[in-house]
Amino acid sequence: MASQALIKDFEDLIGKENVFTSDADLQSYSFDSAVLEPVIPALVLRPTTTEQLGLCVKKLYDNGIPMTVRGAGTNLSGGTIPDHSDTAVVLTTGLNRILEINSNDLYAVVEPGVITADFAAAVAKKNLFYPPDPGSQAVSTIGGNIAENAGGLRGLKYGVTKDYLMGVEFFDATGETVKTGSRTVKCVTGYNLAGMLIQSEGTLGIISQAILKLVPPPKASKALMAVFDDMQNAAEAVAGIIAAHVLPCTLEFLDNNTIVRVDDFTKAGLPRDAAAILLIEVDGHPAQVADDAEAVERVLKENKAVAVHVPKDAAEKFKLWEARRMALPVLARCRPTTVLEDATVPRSQIPAMMKAVNEIAAKYKVEVGTFGHAGDGNLHPTFLCDKRDAEEFKRVEAAIDEMFDTAIKLQGTLSGEHGIGTAKSKWMEKETSRGTILFSQRLRRALDPKGLLNSTKLVGI
Amino acid sequence: MASQALIKDFEDLIGKENVFTSDADLQSYSFDSAVLEPVIPALVLRPTTTEQLGLCVKKLYDNGIPMTVRGAGTNLSGGTIPDHSDTAVVLTTGLNRILEINSNDLYAVVEPGVITADFAAAVAKKNLFYPPDPGSQAVSTIGGNIAENAGGLRGLKYGVTKDYLMGVEFFDATGETVKTGSRTVKCVTGYNLAGMLIQSEGTLGIISQAILKLVPPPKASKALMAVFDDMQNAAEAVAGIIAAHVLPCTLEFLDNNTIVRVDDFTKAGLPRDAAAILLIEVDGHPAQVADDAEAVERVLKENKAVAVHVPKDAAEKFKLWEARRMALPVLARCRPTTVLEDATVPRSQIPAMMKAVNEIAAKYKVEVGTFGHAGDGNLHPTFLCDKRDAEEFKRVEAAIDEMFDTAIKLQGTLSGEHGIGTAKSKWMEKETSRGTILFSQRLRRALDPKGLLNSTKLVGI
Q: Cα(A280)–Cα(A283) distance, rounded to whole angstroms?
């Protein structure tokens, strides 16, 4: 536990207003967006300069105090839940400056606490484009996006956060500065430590600055909504679009349960009788957009879409996309507990995976609403339940177990974009190997010899 | 040194025909493409199955024998030169199967010894595209491309090897199997060890299999050659094209010295009086190609190109591009020693970097021919000299020193795509930090506790 003297030291270092120790404050940082038990930390620190961040890390290390770094706390696998009651939560929200947006060289330099959507908007103002758009972008931070390798709706065509990280500066566990990567398109100077920091969930270092790649924005785009009266047809259409070599920037799926519940709430005018809908957007050069949209419509019809609707204007498109973005919050209102999963399969396996999810839900008699990034094989089957009902929750856990087994059998993965945290670590070895776990543990022990950095996450330490 | 008994063990394991110990054989694997002293290894092993590879690594580890993995040996920074006289060179050339090319899910699975150009051709046959095209692609291997994060002519638009590595299986130093990444577009299951293996130069693990991303091929392309009578104008045009938000798939630069020497040799009909030429190719949807080519021509004219030439057919285009590919081999014929560098700067700094390279060459009275991937800031100033002339070689080394200082000052990097190896390790700390070197050494020591994997490369051990 942090002593009064140490708390005083931190107050001197970063200002009294940036050290939080009241019960109410500590409660606020005891949980994140995962369905896991909260852990109340010992103190919360909010450094506001890079130098302060480094000195905080050094002081925590010297005093043997565990650290959990936290951006907006939107983590869905428990990555931002403190490890122990003596943990210090280190907030990055005070490090929120966009340091450079370079239009000539197509990159930006940011601090970790910059909010994703704010950054994307600042970039758009300069007529450039930062594609990664995780569902939580309105509040999530770039540092958190890097630590989790956040995905989003555009992963299919534009990739994920990993594909935009050119370089990073971070503090190692002891507070030493490490620099890796560059402002250049090509850089092989030393280990690709930026690649190693991506999705390391705050266990290998504490990010202080990132260099992010930007791209010219697409000149045109076209949105479509396809309605299906059979879910398998929708799934086949997804596979068909990719096989036709069209890479839409968005290719989203909502099942009937999700459609009805979202429409109840948003009154977006969704087709409530549909077994499934696909929301599709193609972008690029205007001529390519026209060709791609035509190819997509052809595939949709071949796969028995009962209707293909083109939003008449930006407002209508926004309403439809907003309905998709509301899927999780709306489903989350239905029952006391929402378990949002992100098992991911190769795109051609979407039909098999969709079938399996519904069979598993029926077998274990659990309610599931499925939506997600169908175009990149990244579905979000969302289990609606009440954790206080032990018998029901056991069935949910069994269903999730079987769903992961299915994903792995279909050559997929446990987690497309939500991370391992503590929620999924028990399944890691099944997908990888014993050697992978041991290798990963050796790696982290070497870089964090006192085991202070988010130590219970991922493969443990 | 490997005992006779151990050599017999290896012969039993992988076949007598795959264990090389004759003087002539050992000589052949004592050097690579870098200007560095050869080191004759103790033996050379050529496993032909994944299982054999793992057993070789385990046996070498158990016997404390250093290992240097080698594909085609095209390394330009000494990464494939054996560390010591008791080193075993492990060849990947016997592991050269393309295991899967998946058209529906846009990925391939390959063994490390597959030759880059063979792979690209197999992919093209299925109407797909694998963009990374390092200069040595006709002989280089995918395993080597991963270990070095190989770049090439298309880096500007399509990225480098890193951007195509979805997953990898490798043996750690002890011979245990590690699996990371997936056949899915999104995967955050565990550490991004594939990202860590990229450009690790054979020091963290020995790759046995890789999952590579494929993309739909561009539907059209257009090539242009621009001629300049002032090198700075050419450099300004490069920066201008990117600033106009056009991303050509190729944007190559040749200076007068390179033009004349290549034309002498190839009779390609290059403009021998030009101060510099740019070779440019734009690709994509036919309408976008037309728009981009028009924008490029406009920028070229604004920057005083004295001629813009469009090859009349594929044969003429091939001849020009082949001339570019011949730049290095032709320059290498001119003097006994060729030192090919790859200092890289943000693209807008190309004019400043070009100016500095020529000023430095004049200052130290050394001959330099410069060509390279101007579009991604990755130039290849090539120093022509005779290493046996100690005085001259000292001037070359001083010039290179100053060139790196300039690259770093311009926010660039030591190495865009050739790697650190032993050739550039002394400059690493200047670009990064002491903390970066120590962090990297801790990392590798943990993963290679006996220090057997290419131990003198990168940051040492």
A: 10
